[in-house]
Amino acid sequence: MLKFVIAGAASFALVGAAVAADLPRPQPVVQTAPIGKYPVGKTPVGKYPIGKAPAPAPLVTKG
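Structure (tokenized):
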């Protein structure tokens, strides 16, 4: 009898989880920027600021 109760509870839990996964959820609202106003490519990503470049390594010559 205990096996039937455990099997029934496990089945009920799995069915409940499956039903909960299928419930609709509100999606976030996508906000679009006007054309030409989106800040893509407006900053020098990966480039050094002007006047702040690292100093080149010293040139060592033997002779």
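The helical segments are 2-21. The mean pLDDT is 77.
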